[in-house]
Specification:
0% strand, 69 residues, 4 helices, 52% helix
Length: 69
C-alpha cells in the first residue's frame, strides 16, 4: 500500500496534484480540508461550531482541526 502526504502552504497546488495522482494510480484522495468543510456544513456539534471560524476567513485552531480529523 502506498501512502503519500503532500504538505505546503495554502494555494501551493497540493489539492490539484493529489487529485491527479489519485486518478492516475486509482487510489482514494483524502483531504483534511474536505473533511472539515463537510463537518462544518452537516453537524451541529461543539467542534463543528468551533470550526466555523473558517467561514470568516480565519484559521481553524489546531486543536479543533486535530479533534475533527
Amino acid at each position: 500500500m502506498r501512502r503519500i502526504v503532500l504538505t505546503g502552504p495554502p494555494g501551493a497546488g497540493k489539492g490539484t496534484q493529489s487529485s491527479l495522482l489519485a486518478a492516475r494510480w486509482g487510489v482514494p484522495h483524502i483531504a483534511s480540508g474536505d473533511i472539515l468543510r463537510r463537518i462544518i456544513a452537516t453537524e451541529d456539534s461543539d467542534l463543528a461550531r468551533s470550526a466555523r471560524v473558517i467561514n470568516e476567513g480565519k484559521m481553524i485552531p489546531d486543536a479543533v482541526a486535530n479533534a475533527i480529523v
